[in-house]
TrEMBL record:
It comes from the Eukaryota. GO terms for biological process: DNA repair; translesion synthesis. This is UmuC domain-containing protein. It comes from Manduca sexta (Tobacco hawkmoth). InterPro entries: DNA/RNA_pol_sf, DNA_pol_Y-fam_lit_finger_sf, DNA_pol_Y-fam_little_finger, Rev_trsase/Diguanyl_cyclase, UmuC. Signal peptide: none annotated. Residues 30-240 form the UmuC domain. The lineage of its organism: Eukaryota, Metazoa, Ecdysozoa, Arthropoda, Hexapoda. One of its GO terms (molecular function) is DNA-directed DNA polymerase activity.
Length: 612
């Protein structure tokens, strides 16, 4: 870091930015994309009649953003509605307090950007960084860079190439940025701006230079001079209000001031690391990586208040939180398998507060797919509420008065699901045991993987269990995993090739099967993720975990049949199996006489064979 400061300082010291300044290496190519007047565009895409005339998005008494037509009248972000209407009396207002559509749009944009298979880091709702370095390297192999022009604007034209080759790379990156913006527009209808640079800082700051619906590339040697055009140190993204205040108190107000401030002076004001970082930022230097954004580890909501000390009130609060949480869950798309309840308790004697949480596993079968959306029936919601209240009862001794100042609910673990309307996917995602039927297609070698489940199974965890063992069944248990592993191996012996799996018997078409296989992989990958913090995972041991699934259980099942698997099968298949068990002379002994009854050779029956 010190080196880069020295390097940049050297650049600063030269009277002008000549090409003798260009040395060093600028290997990265970063794109920053920001959606134009985001909330306003979302509303205009939803309702095209709003296009072409001034539009403001109102939250409370503020216009949080407006389209470019309104901006041309002088409407600015975060203007009071009254002021905005004075400058633009014809502006239509749309209420933007419900963020649902904006979040959905944001997720769709993120998904489009993932198509390039480069790291994408989401910043807020309408911005993304994309590190296209590797993609550019790939393209360099096939693209003739000699005649390749930049796509869009250039901050400042270079008169010679940088020896490290970054100019050519950034030109290619600008072409990629164009493709990305075009795809966002073609697929979703949003116009965007992009900044292209060798680091995140410059890519972000150069992005709005040509607004709306355009893009700008900046070359490394112009970074310092571009930064000096920024009037306030606050314009630098990682400099917050406190640091700004401190800098201002030392008469460092503009970015130029920061550039000129000797590092030694900054080190007297800030820690050494911070001083170096500030100095670098001022000079346009930034080596922070683009970190791939993943889904959040948990989705939660909290409600704080002065006091709640009656159980029925707590229940109301949780009920309201649950409704909102289910909306967030639907937007997220993953199936929760763990629910956490948090309380903040006020201790009147000690005049202090502290938080306590408990969590329990929940059965994925509570959730259903309805028109491709994850939903919970009224009965499912009641079930979730009863889990919440049981956890609450464990956190609070109701025989004594209590004083709460916050309640929180969060889904803390998830199973991946495939999107789409396929009911069979929904059906098969209920439990990994069900997936084991499908694993018959796979190599027996995967049994080793299936055994890995035990390594992350709740009961093998060293966690001190604080949770509610009665609450809900565990979706993954080592006991069952053994069954799966054995079953897979049996399958290999008995089903010589995947084609022998009579897919029709499973009422699956090949597309659905593909989806389910993917689903299984997703689910397995999730399950194999080691717990970051076992102490926080107070998962239930689920000793009576079969309770839910055994409702309407298979009383006629032979003892060797895994009831969870059986209960997860479609009704017709259950009926078929039951009929066969009633007639043991039939196909319930597929291993002993697999070819005698030709019609039944490849039925589901063969997978319900006794273990040796
Ligand atoms: N937003 C908000 N409150 C703010 C600033 C922004 O609610 N103080 C919301 C509304 C914006 C969205 O965030 O539409 C994205 O913020 P931007 O700063 O990117 O602004 P816009 O996308 O609206 O406009 P621009 O075209 O300048 O990017
Ligand atoms: Mg924007
Ligand atoms: Mg933005």
């Amino acid at each position: 870091m010190d080196d880069s400061v020295l390097q940049s300082s050297r650049n600063m010291e030269s009277s002008s930015s000549t090409y003798t300044d260009i040395d060093g290496d600028h290997p990265k190519a970063i794109i920053h994309i920001d959606i134009d007047c985001f909330y306003a565009q979302v509303e205009m895409v939803r309702n095209p009649e709003l296009r072409g005339a001034p539009l403001g998005i109102q939250q409370k008494n503020i216009v949080v953003t407006s389209n470019y037509e309104a901006r041309s009248f002088g409407v600015k972000k975060c203007m009071l509605v009254s002021d905005a209407m004075k400058v633009c009396p014809n502006m239509k207002l749309v209420n933007g307090e419900d963020l649902h559509n904006y979040r959905t749009a944001s997720n769709k944009i993120f998904a489009v950007l993932q198509c390039w298979k480069c790291p994408v880091e989401k910043l807020g709702m309408d911005e993304n960084f994309i590190d296209v370095t590797n993609l550019v390297q790939e393209k360099l192999k096939s693209v003739n860079t000699a005649g390749l022009a930049v796509s869009g604007h250039t901050y400042s034209e270079p008169s010679m190439e940088c020896p490290c080759g970054c100019h050519a790379r950034l030109r290619i990156a600008s072409q990629i940025a164009s493709e990305m913006r075009k795809k966002i527009f073609d697929d979703l209808g949003y116009t965007t701006c992009a900044g292209i640079a060798h680091n995140k800082l410059l890519a972000k700051l150069i992005c709005p230079l040509h607004k709306p619906n355009d893009q700008t590339t900046i070359y490394p040697e112009h970074g310092t001079s571009f930064m000096s055009t920024l009037s306030s140190v606050r314009s630098i993204p990682s400099i917050g209000s406190k640091t700004t205040e401190t800098l201002i108190s030392h008469k460092i107000i503009t970015v130029s001031d920061l550039q000129e401030a000797p590092l030694e002076v900054l080190k007297k004001i800030f820690s050494s690391d911070m001083a170096v970082r500030l100095k670098n930022l001022g000079l346009g230097e930034d080596n922070t990586p683009v970190k791939q954004t993943g889904k959040p580890q948990s989705i939660g909501l909290e409600d704080s208040f002065k006091t709640v000390s009656v159980k029925s009130e707590v229940e109301d609060k949780f009920s309201a939180l649950l409704q909102r949480l289910l909306v967030l869950m639907r937007e997220d798309g993953r199936i929760p398998v763990s629910l956490r309840v948090t309380l903040r308790k006020r201790d009147a004697k000690r005049l202090s507060s502290h938080r306590e949480s408990r969590q329990a596993q929940i059965s994925p079968s509570i959730f259903t797919l309805n028109n491709g959306l994850l939903t919970v029936t009224d009965a499912g919601q009641q079930k979730l509420m009863s889990i919440v209240m049981r956890l609450f009862n464990k956190l609070i001794d109701l025989s004594k008065p209590f004083h709460l100042t916050l309640v929180g609910l969060a889904f803390t673990k998830f199973q991946e699901r495939m999107t789409g309307r396929s009911s069979i996917v929904n059906y098969f995602m209920n439990d990994i045991s069900v997936q084991s039927v499908l694993n018959l297609q796979n190599d027996c070698d995967t049994s080793a993987t299936s055994m890995d489940y035990s390594a992350v199974s709740p009961s093998s965890s060293t966690t001190t269990d604080l949770s509610d063992a009665e609450v809900e069944p565990s979706p993954k248990k080592p006991k069952k995993v053994n069954w799966i592993a054995k079953r897979r191996c049996l399958a290999k012996e008995e089903v010589a090739s995947p084609s022998k799996l009579k897919v029709g018997e499973l009422r699956l078409n090949s597309k659905e099967l593909e989806k389910v296989s993917e689903l299984r992989l997703n689910s397995r990958d999730r399950s194999l993720t080691p717990r970051a913090s076992p102490a926080k995972d107070n998962l239930s041991d689920a000793s009576d975990s079969m309770k839910d699934i055994e409702e309407g259980a298979c009383e006629d099942c032979p003892s060797y049949v895994d009831k969870e698997v059986f209960n997860a099968l479609p009704d017709e298949m259950q009926q078929e199996l039951k009929a066969m068990w009633k007639n043991p002379a039939g196909a319930d002994k597929p291993r002993s006489s697999p070819r005698k009854n030709k019609a039944k050779t490849n039925t589901i029956m063969k997978y319900f064979v006794p273990q040796k």
